[in-house]
Amino acid sequence: MKTNSEIYQLYLVTDRELMSTKTLEEAVEKAIDGGCTMVQLREKNLSSRDFYNTAKTLKTFLQTRGVPLIINDRVDIALAVDADGVHIGQSDLPLHEARKILGNERIIGVTAPTLPLALEAEKNGADYLGVGAVFGTTTKKDAKKNTIEILSEIAHTVKIPVVAIGGINADNVGILTGSGISGVAVVSGIISQKNITEASHKIFNILKAKVL
Question: Is the pTM of this model over 0.85?
Answer without folding.
Answer: yes
